[in-house]
Amino acid sequence: MKPPLRIYRHLPPTSRRTPCALTIGNFDGVHLGHQAILDRLRQVARARDLVPTVMTFEPHPREYFATLNRRPELAPTRISGLRDKMAALACAGIEQVVVEHFNARLAEMSANAFIEDLLVRGLQTRWLLVGEDFRFGRKRSGDIDLLREAGMMHGFEVHTLADVTDGNGHRISSSEVRTALAVGDLERARHLLGQPFHISGHVVHGAKLGRQLGYPTMNLRVAARCAARSGIYVVRVLGLADQPLAAVASLGVRPTVEDGGRVLLEVHLLDETVDAYGKLVRVEFLHKLRDEEKFPDLPSLTAAIADDARQARAYFAVHGL
Fold it and tell me: Which pathway is recorded for this entry (predicted)?
């Protein structure tokens, strides 16, 4: 039985600090490249009786600097929200996650302070695994050589991992996943992630318009800057029954009925009626049907939804759940 995942919004309290094997990164999507890093970390931690630990950042450092410099277009989109990231890290056997708030204090922290305050005193790091191009500290001044020097002084080993590639020799990265999702290439995203792209969340109350149109929906809030392209998708829903449920979903800003611009995931179960309010569900994206459209009136929207549901049923008739 796996130990429960411990999540800290800053360093663990002194009483909970214990020697760890650590890796550092954003881990957006926890794709196959990340999974290779986590697998090696877990094996070493087990062999050396260390706690397998991940340090990650919220927001993404690039997002922080994009906001600081008033260049929001430079902020990366998000493959997974924090809940899905934590769930994936737990599945990978990680026992401790430190979610460092990336702010001015961290951005201005010297490389030596990063090592001494966070890695040595804060986390009692004994074994560290990072990418070959890992940089840290103010103006990215710290590098692998500095880490190795510090490791000899403070008693931790430093190891690097080369890029993980797919069967065609292409690097597996969060950027590659974002690119696939941005163009609606779910098959490529699944290949990189090792599983279908998904969004999890609690079902919230909506405007009930779908019910009036004859297509009631479950509504999930979506993290800002979701990497997936807005559109209509064939999906399956987990968390409401013993088996996945077939559904069709709209991811987008609902341009026909409102102009608020808030991204929402609306999911219509094809052949089930379930009281889902407040429940935590996982929506897995299987196939893209079309881009989001603005229709001239509600009858046109209703006809499009009916056709979407028909195409989704046809998909499941061929592929199953």
Answer: Cofactor biosynthesis; FAD biosynthesis; FAD from FMN: step 1/1; Cofactor biosynthesis; FMN biosynthesis; FMN from riboflavin (ATP route): step 1/1
Can you say how many angstroms the Cα of residue 260 is from the centroid of all Cα atoms in its chain? 25
User: What tokens were used for 167?
Assistant: 């069967």
Q: What are phi and psi of 198, to 5 degrees?
A: -150, 160
Homologous superfamily of the 196-319 domain (CATH): Riboflavin kinase-like (2.40.30.30)
Mean pLDDT of the region 178-194: 96
Q: What is the pLDDT of residues 202-236, one digit of tens each?
A: 999 776 555 556 688 899 999 878 999 999 999 99
Distances (CA, A) of 232 to 229, 272, 294: 9, 19, 12
Q: Does domain 6-161 have CATH number 3.40.50.620?
A: yes
Q: Which two tokens stand for residue 244?
A: 């996945």
> Over the stretch 262-295, which tens digit does the pLDDT of each residue have?
788 999 999 888 888 899 999 999 999 999 888 8
N-term to C-term CA, the chain: 29
C-alpha–C-alpha distance, residues 189 and 87, integer Å: 19
- Cβ-count burial of 147 within 10 angstroms (0-12 exposed, 13-18 middle, 19+ buried)? buried
Strand pairing category for 96-101 and 51-58: parallel
Helix (H, G, I), strand (E, B) or coil at 130: strand
